[in-house]
């Protein structure tokens, strides 16, 4: 039997680890809720405000075009449409000025824009109204006021543009702040966990060295082995999975933000094109209804619009933007789909699994991190499916790819190959990074061993990966040297028995302990 004093100290070590897990869990939930509120604020306030500022800028440009066209075509109806746009823009300004978050740093700018805009609209209706009437006295009087009005127009356009840019910048800064906070908290929690684990291991070392009787009974040994094989491996796997997702969160946010920004920009441009096409359709309908003697001036208007807008370029540009937006949305969908494979734990039962699909899924997840400093060469053969836990195998590929990227300082290359031979499937991930020494290679599969700086990982990646591959009946082979890069080769059997021996063995040992 175990000495009560020793048993108390063992429970003390377990208590320290449990306290670490509870503190990490509480801190993670607190930060997650805080960031959720911030992201909700971005979604409910900043994104609509950014859209509204872009729409306001677009409406103002359309209004300026109506003022100009009213003079070119002598159409007083365009002044009425411009007045209608004035009401819309004023409503948008009022809406933005009532939002406290938007007004924190932009109050003076919005108030100046509002005052300048109202004065500009009054002056524009007066000046362009006289120009559109086309009588000599009105035109001469209006021409005296035109230079000052143009100066006001340029100043106001610059202010609308500046405010729209500020809204976009505030949105980007808020998203970046959430990402930075999450990354900093993850680093702190990982450092805290490493310190607690180090303290627990130190206490455990002295317990083992000075207190535990060497002739411990066989039942206890079997129980320790069973728990280590099942529960500890499961905990390490889950901790490393969450750690990997935390490191990828910032990169994925950036990957998603880029295509979404592209779609927003294209929608804004296409809105302007839609207004222009509406004018063309209206003019075409007028031409269809006109008599032959009325056609020449209408044709002149159409030619003027074509020279100003370049119809052929607009139609080609619309097609390009639709294609570009579609590709951006598909990119976002692909990123979310691949993240889902890593975010959810595996089911209890194993399933059919395609190794090539797993490697490609992991590559998509690290694409944003890899593309900035690595070239990628891929070589895939058609290989048979295996029976496996997809989430676990995918995590192995993700860990090896992350290690390869981190080993490359700048302008490196990564090679990925998949092939099968004599009933075995080989997945090789090779890099030309800094490599490892012979001393490091002795310990790379040990838990908590890492060559990275403190706070940059818990040293669980290769340990968990090796456990997962061993569980699936395979092996991981390593070849490396200092300054020569590293080559990791995962070998998996095509026919593998993923059984529940861990659960059965643990249950049998527990029963023996209870009987003892």
SSE layout:
Elements: H1 4-73, H2 77-97, H3 100-103, H4 107-133, H5 136-210, H6 218-289, H7 295-309, H8 311-343, E1 351-353, H9 355-365, H10 367-371, E2 374-380, E3 386-388, H11 390-407, E4 412-421, E5 424-431, H12 438-441, H13 461-471, E6 475-480, E7 486-493, H14 501-515
Parallel strand pairs: 2-4
Antiparallel strand pairs: 1-3, 4-5, 5-7, 6-7
- Give the total of beta strands: 7
| Strand order, sheet with most strands | 2-4-5-7-6
Distance between the termini: 9 Å
- Catalogue the unreliable spans: 499-506
Helix content: over 70%
Characterize the overall form: elongated
**H/E element order:** HHHHHHHHEHHEEHEEHHEEH
What is the typical, i.e. mean, pLDDT? 75
Please indicate the percent range of residues in DSSP E strands (runs of 2 or more).
5-15%
User: What composes the largest sheet?
Assistant: 5 strands, mixed
């Amino acid at each position: 039997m175990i000495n009560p004093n020793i048993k108390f100290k063992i429970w003390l070590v377990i208590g320290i680890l449990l306290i670490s897990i509870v503190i990490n869990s509480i801190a993670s939930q607190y930060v997650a809720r805080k960031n959720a509120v911030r992201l909700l604020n971005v979604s409910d306030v900043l994104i609509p405000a950014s859209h509204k500022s872009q729409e306001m800028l677009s409406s103002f440009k359309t209004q300026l075009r109506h003022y100009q066209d009213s003079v070119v075509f002598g159409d007083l109806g365009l002044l009425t449409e411009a007045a209608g746009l004035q009401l819309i823009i004023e409503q948008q300004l009022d809406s933005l000025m009532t939002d406290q978050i938007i007004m924190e740093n932009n109050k003076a700018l919005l108030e100046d824009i509002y005052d300048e805009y109202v004065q500009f609209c009054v002056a524009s209706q007066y000046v362009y109204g006289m120009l559109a009437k086309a009588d000599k006295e009105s035109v001469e009087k209006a021409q005296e006021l035109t230079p000052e009005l143009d100066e006001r127009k340029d100043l106001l356009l610059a202010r609308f543009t500046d405010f729209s840019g500020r809204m976009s910048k505030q949105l980007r800064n808020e998203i970046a702040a959430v990402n930075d906070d999450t990354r900093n908290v993850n680093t702190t929690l990982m450092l805290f966990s490493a310190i607690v684990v180090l303290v627990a291991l130190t206490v455990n070392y002295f317990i083992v060295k000075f207190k535990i009787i060497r002739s411990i009974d066989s039942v206890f040994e079997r129980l320790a082995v069973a728990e280590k094989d099942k529960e500890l491996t499961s905990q390490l796997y889950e901790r490393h999975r969450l750690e990997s997702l935390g490191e990828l969160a910032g990169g994925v946010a950036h990957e998603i933000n880029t295509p979404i920004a592209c779609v927003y920009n294209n929608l804004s441009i296409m809105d302007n094109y839609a207004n222009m096409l509406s004018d063309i359709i209206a003019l075409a309908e007028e031409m269809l209804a006109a008599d032959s003697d009325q056609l020449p001036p209408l044709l002149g208007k159409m030619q003027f619009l074509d020279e100003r807008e370049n119809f052929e370029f607009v139609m080609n540009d619309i097609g390009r933007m639709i294609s570009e937006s579609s590709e951006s949305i598909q990119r976002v969908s692909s990123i979310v789909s691949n993240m889902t494979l890593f975010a959810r734990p595996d089911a209890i039962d194993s399933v059919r699994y395609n190794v090539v699909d797993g490697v490609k899924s992991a590559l998509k997840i690290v694409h944003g991190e890899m593309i900035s400093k690595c070239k990628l060469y891929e070589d895939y053969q058609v290989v048979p499916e295996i029976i496996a836990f997809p989430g676990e195998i995918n995590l192995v590929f993700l860990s090896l790819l992350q290690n390869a990227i981190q080993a490359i300082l700048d302008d490196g290359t990564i090679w990925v190959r998949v092939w099968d031979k004599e009933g075995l499937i080989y997945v090789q991930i090779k890099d030309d990074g800094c490599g490892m020494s012979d001393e490091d290679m002795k310990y790379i599969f040990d838990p908590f061993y890492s060559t990275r700086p403190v706070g940059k990982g818990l040293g669980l990646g290769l340990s968990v990966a090796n456990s997962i591959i061993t569980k699936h009946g395979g092996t991981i082979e390593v070849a490396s040297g200092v300054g020569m890069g590293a080559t990791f080769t995962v070998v998996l059997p095509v026919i593998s028995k993923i059984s529940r021996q861990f659960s059965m063995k643990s249950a049998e040992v527990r029963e023996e302990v209870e009987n003892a």
